[in-house]
Design brief:
single chain; alpha+beta; 20% strand; 157 residues; three-stranded antiparallel beta sheet; 2 domains; two-stranded antiparallel ribbon; 6 helices
Length: 157
């Protein structure tokens, strides 16, 4: 049975998955409990190790918040790698897992608008339309995504 869970880690949205062998079919309640248990395991040691790796500290500084780690493609990749590939369930019993996806989480904003801006930016990268956003033609994809998001998808105050 495949278990998948998604959660917020500061400015990141993370999706992880694992496979659990079961000789018998698992009902909806047991499946929900397994997903929540998997999430709890990931939010402990793997999340702490990933935070330390990205923030560059050994002991968490007073007042440190995960959202002080800015989202970037490089940080998303580093976060994915820092989570590792297995988590201890009980003494000497490890559960292999994989990070399926790491995307930007923007509080108070739907993931759909960010996804739409990313899709638009990917389509116009390297075309004259980039200049219409006030960016140079050779602008980085991250810059184009931000410009598309601000121009077409961000909530106006």
């Amino acid at each position: 049975m495949k278990i998948q869970t998604t959660w917020t880690f500061g400015n990141f949205s993370i999706t992880a998955a694992c496979n659990v062998e079961s000789a018998e079919p698992v009902g909806p309640l047991a499946a929900a409990l397994m997903e929540k248990g998997f999430l709890q395991l990931l939010q402990r040691v793997p999340a702490s190790n990933a935070e330390k790796a990205l923030a560059g500290y050994e002991k968490r500084p007073t007042g440190f918040k995960r959202d002080s780690i800015l989202y970037s493609e490089d940080n998303a990749l580093a976060l994915s790698e820092a989570f590792g590939t297995s988590v201890e369930v009980t003494d000497k019993v490890m559960l292999p897992f994989s990070i399926v996806d790491v995307t930007e989480h923007v509080g108070g904003e739907s993931a759909t608008s960010r996804k739409s801006a990313t899709e638009m930016a990917t389509k116009i990268t390297g075309t004259p339309m980039v200049a219409m956003l006030g960016l140079p033609l050779d602008a980085a994809l991250d810059e184009i995504i931000e410009a598309c998001h601000a121009q077409f998808f961000a909530r106006k105050k």
